Amino acid sequence: MKIALITGTSSGFGLLTALELAKKGYRVIATMRDPEKRHRLLELAEKSAADRIEVWRMDVTKEEEIDGARKKLEDAYGKLDVLINNAGYATGGFFSEIEVSEWEKQFQTNFFGTVRVTRAFLPLIRKNGGGKIINISSVSGFFGFPGLGPYTASKHALEGFSESLRLELAPENIWVSLVEPAAYATDIWEKGLKNFSPENRPKFQQRLIKMAMKAGKTGSDPTEVARLIGKICDEEKPGLRYPVGKGARSLYRWKALLPWRLVERAVLKKLDG
Ligand SMILES: NC(=O)c1ccc[n+]([C@@H]2O[C@H](COP(=O)([O-])OP(=O)(O)OC[C@H]3O[C@@H](n4cnc5c(N)ncnc54)[C@H](OP(=O)(O)O)[C@@H]3O)[C@@H](O)[C@H]2O)c1
After folding, report:
1. Residue to substitute in 188, 217, 221 for testing ligand 1 pocket (most ligand atoms within 8 angstroms of CB)
2. What SS3 state is found at 131?
3. Pocket of ligand 1 (CB under 6 A)
4. Considering Cα of 40, then 46, then 47, then 48, what sign does the dihedral take?
5. Which family does it belong to (predicted)?
6. Cβ distance 158 to 114 under 8 Å?
7. Residue 211: CATH number of its domain
8. How far is 240 from 178, CA to CA, in rounded Å?
9. What is the pLDDT along the chain (273 residues), one digit of tens a residue?
10. Residues 77, 89, 151, 242: which is the catalytic one?
């Protein structure tokens, strides 16, 4: 039986990926920092899938909880096939308004959380003789959106780390991949933008905040991302990058192929209305 461990499964991509992998026959270790929130996941799971899902407590910023989950997994199954580092949030705000402590918190979850969890569970993937590590990045992992500085920086760090780790682990048949979603309708927008008010600001900032709020409301169906993650799990040697969602691939190509000045002109023109 294949074992998959996912972080941040109380909502959004994490929850939907837990359902997707359970449907595919995986034993899913659905971790969340507050297992009281498990009902949303378990109520959506069909009976046969629910039997394959175990909800465990794990906050990715808490070393002792990660270690506890690792020991429990080692005792119960002795190996891990797939690790999905999904837990994350987005700090919305303009540079001068965000305290350094907020930057640190953002990195503690989105970047160091992934580093901590990967360090803890890698030995169990090695025991399996190979496997997959899927890191949920974002289009913000390769493009610096204004008003999302800490989030963008944390996802860029995640991308560099993942590239490096992929090359280190490929000879051991362990494949590190990045999923890079555009805007999807999950709770992340409401959580990250709730204190980011467009009132009493210069026009440029107002427009930007309204665009971000709209992106959350008109975001695509997140099951698309869960299905993609399911497909990556099926691949023997998955690739490094999977941009997904409206505009993700074209943004990736623009950034890679066009001179920065042209990209910048197009973005500033759009933001200028
Ligand atoms: N939705 C999008 O448009 C989008 C686009 C690109 C990338 N992403 C990425 O996708 C991933 C999932 O986000 P989502 O959109 O599905 O948002 P979401 O619905 O808000 O889910 C985020 C999950 O992460 C959990 N989490 C946050 N901090 C945690 C911590 N310290 N330890 C453990 N779990 C923690 C949350 O738990 P709580 O319920 O306890 O807060 C929640 O389960 C994130 O990495 C995000 O950056 C999302």
Report:
1. 188
2. strand
3. 7-14, 32-34, 37, 59-61, 86-90, 109, 113, 136, 138, 181, 183-184, 186-188, 191, 219
4. negative
5. Belongs to the short-chain dehydrogenases/reductases (SDR) family.
6. yes
7. 3.40.50.720
8. 6
9. 999 999 999 999 999 999 999 999 999 999 999 999 999 999 999 887 899 999 999 999 999 999 999 999 999 999 999 999 999 999 999 999 999 999 999 999 999 999 999 999 999 999 999 999 999 999 999 999 999 999 999 999 999 999 999 999 999 999 999 999 999 999 999 898 887 888 888 888 888 888 888 888 899 999 999 999 999 999 999 999 999 999 999 999 999 999 999 999 988 888 876
10. 151
CA–CA gap between residue 17 and residue 30 (Å, rounded):
9
Which amino acid is present at 196?
F
Amino acid at position 61, single letter = T
Domain count for the chain: 1
| Residue 95 contacts residue 149 (beta carbons within 8 Å) | yes
What one-letter code names the amino acid at 86? N
Full residue range of the structural domain in which residue 70 is found:
3-272
